[in-house]
Amino acid sequence: MQSDLNKPLGKDQKSKPSPTSKKPAKPHKWLAGFAVAAILAGTSYAAFVKDPLQKMALIEIKPDVVNVDKTTTADTDVPSIQSSGQNAEQNPQSQTDIIGNQAGNSGGQINTVTTPNGLKVTTITPDQNATNNPVILNPPNRKGQDSRLAHLPDPTIIENTPSGRLPIYGQNGQRAFDIYARPWSGARGVRIAILVGGLGLSQTGSNYAIENLPEDITLGFAGNGNSIQRWMQTARREGHEIILQVPLEPFDYPNNNPGRGTLVTANDPVSNIKSLHDAMGRITNYTGISNFMGGRFLSAPESFEPIMRDIAKRGVMFFDDGSSAQSLAETFSRTLGIPFAAGDIILDGKQDKAAILQKLDDLERVARRNGQAIGVASAFPESVDAIAQWSEEAKARGIEIVGISALATDPERR
To answer: Residue 55: how many CB atoms within 10 A of its CB?
Structure first.
């Protein structure tokens, strides 16, 4: 509430000296009062700016941040909010709060809107006239995303194309590889990442995996799956890092067919890049691209190189699931400066829980020898049950389960 400077102060104010009084106010008392006011103001400011990391954890201040409270079931994201003022006029239920101090120099405006379909949307817009208040800005290569916004794409790293919203480097070098990564401790202990892929191919399997796997397990979504944007939002709300699996031509294609949208060596680069973008545009919030099958495509340099050159512009990693010994993914990643990781062990070649647990023990031995290891599995019930059980036991043995991005070789970290 703004103060009326012309309004008389309350009755508690001390009355002014009488004009007939011969006892003037002493200068040293005025100075003492000013000092007390300065100390109080300094204390309030220090309390406001104290521990900026905690402030950043609580809220991120940037233009038009959108926070949706109600879970969406649509296959697409919530439409962007163009203007806080427009929403306030269209919806009488909107309310506005001001971030700032009592002097009237606000740091920003929060506008909460309830849309006609029941969604509660909050936009946060900085005050361009604010000069005295500190403003918390996101560092250009921050790791992780505010958990309240984890299911929403970051607009600073999105390119709108005919194929949909594709990841791209931000103006200050921001990358999806960093922003959507699952944070980890940074400790130098034994680390293991596990990718459970194929989500979106089966509604039952996707739901079972998301409900039963610990949040530190990375989930892979098939680029030609169904309702994958909705499944992505659910997985991100649960804390998972995610990978997009793009269908690539295997050696025995078409007898073994990854499905619609498969990139094949018989197609020209323009057609394959179009198929890549179509897959990438169906989902957001992933840290990297991975092959779904693809033995032949991964080993064909004339077909694979244009794809990797496009990925190099996207600020994402490439994850090779390790299924093809002839893969050129690491070579191209190293040459083009793409963050890269590769699977060490396929965990569920045999669909039997005991056999999968044995493979997980093998993965642990590799990790203890090398310091880290990556396992790959599909979203079968036996795989999910074994991984969920083993990962909890592994934590008790001092192993840290991390997202795949934490184990990737990143040229920008050198």
So the answer is: 15
* 73: its two tokens: 């079931």
- Model confidence pLDDT, tens digit, residues 122-167: 555 555 554 444 433 444 445 667 778 889 999 999 999 999 999 9
Task: List, as one string, the DSSP characters of 39-52.
Answer: HHHHHHHHHHHS-H
| 3-state per-residue secondary structure call for 184-230 | CCCCCCCEEEEEEEEECCCHHHHHHHHHHCCCCCEEEEECCCCCHHH
Residue 106 near residue 377 (C-beta atoms within 8 A): no
Mean pLDDT of the chain: 78
E strands within 18-162? Answer: 65-68, 95-100, 106-114, 120-126, 158-161
d(CA 304, CA 264): 10
Residues 6+ apart with CB under 8 A from 299: 324, 326, 327, 328
Q: What is the dihedral of CA 219, 224, 229, 234, to 10 degrees?
A: -30
Enclosing H/E stretch for 297? helix 295-298
- CA-based Rg of the chain, rounded to a whole angstrom? 27
pLDDT higher than threshold 70 for residue 246? yes
Token pair in block for residue 227:
């309702």
Tokens encoding 80: 């962007």
